[in-house]
Design brief:
The chain has helices at about 10-20, 85-100, 110-115, 130-135, 155-165, 170-180, 195-205; strands spanning about 1-5, 30, 40, 65-70, 110. The chain has about 210 residues and is α/β, with parallel strands linked by helices. Strands 3-2-4-1-5 form a five-stranded mixed sheet. Bound molecules: zinc ion (ZN).
Length: about 210
Amino acid sequence: MVVLHYTEMQSAEAALQRMCDPAAEVSAHYLITEQGEVVSLVPEDKRAWHAGVSYWRGHTDVNGKSIGIELDHPGHALGYREFSEPQFEALVPLLARIVRTHDIPRANVVGHSDVAPARKIDPGELFPWDRLAEYKLCLPRPEKLELGDPFDNDGAFYLALERFGYDIADGRKAVEAFQRRWRPARIDGEIDGQVRAILFQLLLDRDQGRTR
Ligand SMILES: [Zn+2]
């Protein structure tokens, strides 16, 4: 898998210092500065400590199964804003090379909030997943949505959400994480019709082999 993060720090220098401090117990394979410089920190075959307690598609040891990329960014705490263009332009070829080298399915290129919904909200609703999807580096947002209510009740929705990959231990937070990734216009933890339809379509696409 690949897990994308933001650093939530004032500068790339501060983030580097933190990730190189053994006492901080955090690390990532790559840091990409807002200016678009890629800094390699941990070899890809080594474990980095970026995901923490996490879960994705039945796997709990996310750190042992993923490459972590930190995006230099102030995050929600220090002034949430668009990700810089040079940073995105540096991310695309790096990610393309990583998914090709390790044969990583698009569905396993995720945000930190996807694998730790109860604890994390990075990289957040402004991360340009749609643009990444144009490069086929993550799953695209479903375009056409079936009408009608595909799930009988909230319980059925949560089970489907878990089947798609999310940890649903904290249901509301899981829905928020899903919205942050797939319907960023409204993140309120409510299971509304649009959210149901998006999840249903994602699972349908996967079951029918349209996405991998
Ligand atoms: Zn993170």
